[in-house]
Each structure stands twice: as structure tokens, then as C-alpha cells.
Specification:
The chain is mainly alpha-helical. It has eleven helices and two strands, in the order H-H-H-H-E-E-H-H-H-H-H-H-H. Strand 1 and strand 2 form a beta hairpin. The longest helix has 18 residues.
Length: 262
């Protein structure tokens, strides 16, 4: 959407103010980002970030409760749990979060084990495949991870773990995990990756973010799909080229609290 210079300046001033209000340490306690932040080793942080983001849909309290459940299953040692293959003994029908079951959990961990058997971290995996050189790093990373997970699971794909329609998916949960891993302002996000730069991140587009952006006149498309992610992120890069997804805090925070009446 084309906004004139004055409109962009006004939008930036408003979103900057809202981002500062919401991007603070108090945000952590009720958000899934709290779980990877408990760990210090990069592989532990990455695994927990990916798993927590994977089940981040629905009620936030339920999401956090079920993240605790997953950590307990892994004895709060996620990397060791993955590398030792301890997950194979879990019953397939154990429910972990809504429609995410132990069979999906095991699928994902088999793929992660395959990656960690060859690389010290997912960051190293991304760097080895030059993900940061790609125009759409998040989608390229998922494509590469899908390949590894499929090989580890007899050629099968599981859309409960990673979206399979990369031409259209907004990739909301992966983009959120990457925000945690890549952004480095020292407040909520952890900034433990260097394979992708903050300037290369894309907005994690959920219902709240999409509705707020539409109410503010930032986008017109009704679908929360990849095309909308690209359009909205392009606009956010005009406001802050080096760190466009700082505005995830503003758009999500306003939307989840229904602070804009449409």
C-alpha cells in the first residue's frame, strides 16, 4: 500500500511508541519466548524456540502450559533428549497441544537429530546452506529443514511440524521463532543467531497483526498469507530498514488488546 511521506512519518511515530511500550521484560512472562530464554546453550535454545513456536496457536495460557509439558518430557535437557533419541519411546497418540501429538513431536525431533548429528547448531546449518544469501531466508530455511525431516522419516512430510505449501504460507510460527533467535536489542528477543540478519526477518503474521495492520491502513489484502507478509514487511522496512520486525510488538500488542476499533 502506498502511503505518502507524512503518513509514513505519522505511522512510524505511532508504531515506535507502541513498540517501546510492549517490547519490555514484562512481556516475557506470558509469552512462549520465556521457554528458550531459560537456556544458555545454543542448541537447547534453538530446539526449544522451534518447538515452542510450533505449538504457538490458540490460547496463550494453554500454549505456555503445553510448552512446560514438552520441556518436562525432555527432562529440561532438550539437546540431549534429541541427540540420544529418547523420544522414540513416546506413545504416538500422546496429546501435546490441540492437534499436535507425540507422533508429530517425534517426526520433528528425528529431523532435528539428523541436522544436529551433522551441525553444532541450526544456525550453523543455516550458514552452511547460505540461507542468509536468499531473498526469503525464512522460507529457504524451512525448505531445507523439510528435506532433512523427510529423509529422517522415510520420505514423509508433516505439515503439523513445518508448513508444506511454501508458495502461500505466511510461515507465522517460524518467523516468530526467527525473531526470537535473530533480533538482538537485549530486551525480549535473544539475538543468538548470525546466519540471518535482523533486516532480513519477516513479520510473524497472525490474526491480531493482520487486523491491526488493516485497521491502520497498512495493508488491504484480507488473506493472512505469504503475499500479505511480503507486502507488510516491505512497508515496515521503509519505517526501520535495519529492524523491521520490531513492529511485531506494536501490531500484535495493539491487536491482542483490541485497542483499535475497526
Amino acid at each position: 500500500m502506498a502511503l505518502d511521506k507524512q503518513e509514513l512519518e505519522g505511522l512510524k511515530e505511532f508504531l515506535d511508541r507502541e513498540a517501546v511500550r510492549i517490547n519490555n521484560l514484562d512481556f516475557i512472562a506470558s509469552d512462549p519466548v520465556q521457554f528458550p530464554r531459560r537456556f544458555e546453550t545454543l542448541s537447547d535454545i534453538e530446539i526449544v524456540a522451534l518447538l515452542s513456536a510450533t505449538i504457538a496457536w490458540g490460547n496463550r495460557k494453554m500454549i505456555c502450559n503445553n510448552c512446560e509439558k514438552m520441556l518436562a518430557i525432555m527432562d529440561n535437557q532438550p539437546a540431549a533428549f534429541v541427540l540420544d533419541g529418547d523420544f522414540e519411546s513416546l506413545p504416538d497418540e500422546m496429546n501435546l497441544h490441540r492437534t499436535f501429538f507425540a507422533r508429530n513431536f517425534k517426526y520433528m525431533l528425528r529431523g532435528l537429530k539428523r541436522i544436529y548429528d551433522k551441525h553444532n547448531s541450526l544456525n550453523d546449518f543455516a550458514a552452511a546452506h547460505h540461507v542468509g544469501d536468499h531473498e526469503e531466508p525464512a522460507w529457504r530455511l524451512v525448505e531445507l529443514m523439510q528435506q532433512e525431516m523427510a529423509i529422517a522419516n522415510q520420505g514423509r512430510y508433516d505439515s503439523r511440524c513445518l508448513p508444506t505449501n511454501l508458495k502461500n504460507t505466511a510461515l507465522k510460527r517460524i518467523n516468530m521463532a526467527l525473531r526470537w533467535l535473530v533480533r538482538d536489542d537485549g530486551i525480549v528477543d535473544m539475538g543468538v543467531w548470525n546466519a540471518i540478519k535482523p533486516s532480513q526477518l519477516f513479520i510473524p503474521l497472525d490474526v491480531h497483526v493482520g487486523n491491526t495492520a488493516r485497521a491502520l491502513g497498512m495493508i488491504e489484502r484480507r488473506a493472512n498469507d505469504k503475499k500479505t507478509v511480503l507486502e507488510l514487511t516491505a512497508l515496515l522496512r521503509q519505517l526501520r530498514p535495519s529492524d523491521p520486525v520490531i513492529y511485531d510488538y506494536a501490531l500484535f500488542g495493539i491487536g491482542v488488546n483490541n485497542e483499535i476499533v475497526q
